[in-house]
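lol so apparently i was supposed to do this last week
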Amino acid sequence: MAESGLDDQIDLRAAADRLGVHYQTAYRWVRSGKLAAELIDGSYRINPAELDALETRRRTPAAHRPPSGERLERQSRRMHDALVDGDETSVRRIASRLLEEGTPIIDLIEGVIVPPLREIGTAWHNGELSIWVEHRASAIVERVLGEIAPNPRGRRRGRVVVAAVSGDLHSLPTTMAAVGLRDDNWHVDHLGADMPPEELLDYCASNEVDAVVLSSTNPETAPLAESTATELRAGGTAAIVGAPGSTLLQLQVEARSVVAAHADAVLAATAR
Ligand code: B12
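anyway here it is w/ cobalamin bound
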């Protein structure tokens, strides 16, 4: 462990916050030796220099070699079976192991979690799986995503609202979008599914929001999502709309560019 006085050391919760991971993840890292810590009077104490060293290792691609596409595919098969069986322990284990191995969170979602959800949706649609299998799987995914959602670090890019409009009950894509945006260091107000457009407009009028991200999964409400985005833009709030099959990487890129374009437009208008 790097040299430091005991006074400089921080506890595990503060270390987890600084690393932007869940407390349990930091705990597992300490237990596995990935993060050096001293056990003092029954609690772990961590030298901040160890956090910097771990951060550097995590950010250096060659150093942690994230799992290959093949491994993700195999884990996605296991994830499918665990979700269909309602085996939440295995779902958590697969997700946390892959994250520990350095899998980016959006690759975990899109490479390992989304394919089983699509397969479950198709099987349900074809009458091969009961609706309760889908409901149980969706609830497990919501809980696990809530737990692995990263904490943005340092200065945020800005504040983004994530929702789906009235009549679209698919909350999971909004949760995935919220996780993807937090991963890209946005402050996220996650309003979930079935959000009345007029309430969304009110929310933006009374809060300092940089952009609204609308997830859109139900084809019947897709026109409402588009018209809501148009109204938001007319009211001066940047807005983007996703669709089934659009990716979280696309979302990260679009969110950055729509906010930058909006800021440029505001600057140009005030300069006039
Ligand atoms: C779970 C589920 C439900 C659950 C939702 C639970 C929940 N908490 O979310 C419930 C039971 C409520 C449900 C209901 C219905 N569902 Co449903 N559902 C699904 C299922 C299995 C998964 C949905 C999901 O989470 N998708 C997320 C991932 C898997 O896919 P994705 O959409 O590509 O997501 C990415 C993007 O959205 C992106 N993203 C998110 N936000 C944004 C924003 C931006 C800007 C960008 C760029 C990207 C982005 O992030 C995601 C990850 O990459 C899908 C199967 C499927 N193929 O998706 C069916 C599915 C979407 N449902 C379907 C249907 C038909 C329905 C119902 C109409 C069924 C019915 N007869 O009642 C109702 C509609 C309810 C309503 N009013 O909205 C169909 C839609 C078919 C279609 N295109 O017409 C599907 C495809 C199932 C099927 N094969 O038939 N459903």
